[in-house]
Amino acid sequence: MALQHIRVVEFAGLAPGPFAGLVLADWGADVIRVDRPAKSSPDTLCRNKRSIAIDVKVSSGLGILIRLVSQADVLIDPFRPGVMERLGLGPEVFLGEQGLNKKLIYARLAGYVRR
Question: Domains in the chain: how many in total?
Answer without folding.
Answer: 1
